[in-house]
Amino acid sequence: MTDPSTASGIEARHLLPTATGRQTWAALRTELARLPLLSAVAGTLLVAASATGLVAPWVLGRLVDDVIAGTDTQQVVAWSGVIAGAAVLAGLLTAAGAAVAARLGETVLARLRERVLDRALHLPSATLERAGTGDLVARAGDDVAVVTNVIATSGPAFLGATLSVVLTALGLFALDWRLGIAGLAAAPAYALALRWYLRRSVPYYARERVATGERTQATAEALRGSATVRAYRMEDAHVARIADRSGVARDLSLEIFGLFTRFGLRINRSEFVGLAAVLLAGFLLVREDLSTVGAATTAALYFHRLFNPIGLLLFESDSVLQAGASLARLVGVTTLPDTASPDSSRPARPERPEPAALEVTVAQHRYDDGPVVLRDITLRLAPGERVALVGASGAGKSTLAGIIAGIIEPSQGSVRLRDVPLAQLGEHQLRREIALISQEVHVFAGPLADDLRLADPDATDAELTRALDLVGATGWLRTLPDGLATAVGEGGRQLTAAQAQHLALARLVLADPAVAVLDEATAEAGSAGARDLDRAAVAATEGRTTLVVAHRLSQAATADRIVVLNQGRVAEHGTHAELLAAGGGYSHLWRSWRTPDPVPPPARESTEGNRHPNVGAPGTFPDQPATTRVRG
Ligand SMILES: Nc1ncnc2c1ncn2[C@@H]1O[C@H](COP(=O)(O)OP(=O)(O)OP(=O)(O)O)[C@@H](O)[C@H]1O
């Protein structure tokens, strides 16, 4: 058998943590303790159901003894009635126990899921960025589904089977301690078989869940970035990566199945050993007149009765172990430090933070073990200053924007806001002060108003409309059938990429942060849509310290200062006029792509202006694909 760690070839170091067995049990105990009545009722019903199951074999033994003693038909009928009654009662108790246990399990899981989501939504952005949302989606989706399935189907039966095994073993001893010891002869064989299996399977299940998480992650990434994947013709590489991850998950499942079959053989061997021992002991005891035939019969029936629960434990251990691994991944999220502020309920209408200076020092940054993507960056944004970041694709603009927004931790360096390192601000304060509009704008399903209120839950309808108005979205707002109440996103009205961007900018206005970081690339340069969005962005960031990743040169021209990145370094910086006068790379770019009448600053622009002939995609950078680069 190969070592699972090498068999999977998985590196889990960037995924969210998985809880230890002890942490998982502790979390379960805490949740059960919060539901004392339901736990007690479920426990009592399951124990009663298992105990009632012992009645029939015991009565059969008595019946055998009575028949040998020459009892009358009436007594036989009476014993038969007891057997039938016990069977009906055991059935009813088992059904009720399973229903209550499932309800208990569902409640515990629902609470755990709430805690996972709560913690996940408060995760520091850098942690989430490193782990990738795919891992979180796999936990909140796949892992919860696995646990739910076990709770609803095999979990209660598993619990019942465990109790049956314990109570039947006690029943054997109650009959005759020697019969009990004979039955126990099988225990070492069972224990060895179980140990053999668990030792091998538990690490596999944990690996399998990790592998599934990585597969989901790889698929989610490829789908999310599908436009980029297609633009760079990286389909084959992504498919190969997904196939690789799926292959790892499949190989692990096959190895687990092989293990499972061999475990089944070992269990059959243990059953043979146990039943043979009980029959032999019964025979000897009866021969020596130390026991009755009836007691020996009951003992054999008791032992035979163990086959089913042990078979069920064996059969279901597969899914229960998987559920255990999934549960550990769920509990793992709850073990992350809570970064929500002590009073995480949003403070009512916080004061707008004063415009703040930002100081960025990045000696270098690399993703994991990859190449250095940023180096020797020193940048200061004065309060209220608007700085544009310019550079070819892959120059490091989005990375620097992520670092400045506090969602990426620089490998070496820091960002200070009002002289306080972002790392010391705490997630809540950080989000209050700095907002990032990335290339992935998510439109949440539901009324448009709810989507906007994510940024300010207390905003009135008038304030929402004002925010939309400020970013120039009133035009399309008027076309919505139910205005702010119109359902948007999945299942509702689909917003265009530009409308989604308006929405993001309106959220920015409502969130009202001191610092805004914009990294959107919705429209092609020179288009009316681009000018519209440029105006909207300027309006939304008015008075804030702003960093704009300029995917269009028109965005740079209106900034107070421009920083040109080239292969991760600052190549030039200065105002638009200074850079043009300097005659460096920026001026070269500008002159190459400038339209006859470049977009003037928004405040001074009077008409929509179709005076700019849209020749190719003026104002974009040389190696950017001309297709839309919106990923969300
Ligand atoms: N999550 C990541 N993991 C590994 N490498 C990354 C990651 N994100 C970006 N990179 C790499 O870092 C470098 C800089 O990328 P970045 O996205 O910051 O550049 P950019 O100038 O914003 O490009 P674009 O204009 O295409 O968005 C590139 O080589 C890119 O491949």
Polypeptide structure, described:
The chain has a six-stranded mixed β-sheet, sandwiched between helices. It has a four-stranded antiparallel β-sheet with strand order 2-1-4-5. A two-stranded antiparallel sheet has the order 7-8. With 632 residues, it is α/β, with parallel strands linked by helices. The protein is elongated and about 120 Å long. The longest helix is centred in the middle third of the chain and has 53 residues, at 235-287. It folds into two domains: 19-210 and 257-334, ABC transporter transmembrane region fold (Up-down Bundle), CATH 1.20.1560.10; 358-441 and 513-604, P-loop containing nucleotide triphosphate hydrolases (Rossmann fold), CATH 3.40.50. α2 (21-33) crosses α13, α3 (36-52) packs antiparallel against α5 and α10 packs parallel to α13 (293-334). It contains 24 helices and twelve strands. The structure holds adenosine-5'-triphosphate (ATP). Adenosine-5'-triphosphate is lined by residues 367, 370, 373, 391, 393-399.
Mean pLDDT: 80
- Provide the structure class: alpha/beta
Question: Which cofactors or ions or other ligands sit in this model?
Answer: adenosine-5'-triphosphate
**C-alpha geometry:** elongated
CATH class of the largest domain: Mainly Alpha
CATH names the topology of the largest domain as: ABC transporter transmembrane region fold
Proportion of residues in extended strands: 5-15%
Known CATH architecture of the largest domain: Up-down Bundle
- Helix proportion range: 55-70%
Number of helices: 24
Largest sheet: 6 strands, mixed
Question: How many DSSP E strands?
Answer: 12
Q: What is the radius of gyration computed over CA atoms, rounded to a whole number of angstroms?
A: 34 Å
- Let me know the CATH homologous superfamily of the largest domain: ABC transporter type 1, transmembrane domain
Total domains, how many? 2
Strand order of the largest sheet: 6-9-10-3-11-12
Distance between the termini: 44 Å
Unreliable parts: 1-13, 341-349, 597-632
Domain ABC transmembrane type-1: 40-322
Organism: Micromonospora taraxaci
Subcellular location: Cell membrane
Domain ABC transporter: 358-592
